[in-house]
Amino acid sequence: MNESPTDTSASSSADGLSDRFTGTLRPFLKFQGDEPLTPGSNLRTLGLDSMQAIELLFAIEDTFEVTLPEEAMNDTTFATAGNLWQEVRQALTAQHTGAATDPAGA
What we know:
The chain has 106 residues and is mostly helical. The protein has three helices and no strands. Residues 1-11 and 101-106 have low confidence and may be disordered.
């Protein structure tokens, strides 16, 4: 049984990252090993390159049924697990509330 795409809090681990999010992220981190992912986990150091970032983006969008805003497609977003999770959560919240993700508020 799948979780609701907007249900991010019920499965969050103690470090604030969703179990579902870390499950989506882990296959893209070839150097992660068995170490836990934390919000500060550096995705580049753990093996995420630019091509994998694109594949990860599609995996996140499929898993959470959400589209990340274009302005979130930058190095800062994909620098750490916490940054990426924050963007996913914001997109889920915007989608759930019907709020625009456009920074201009349009």
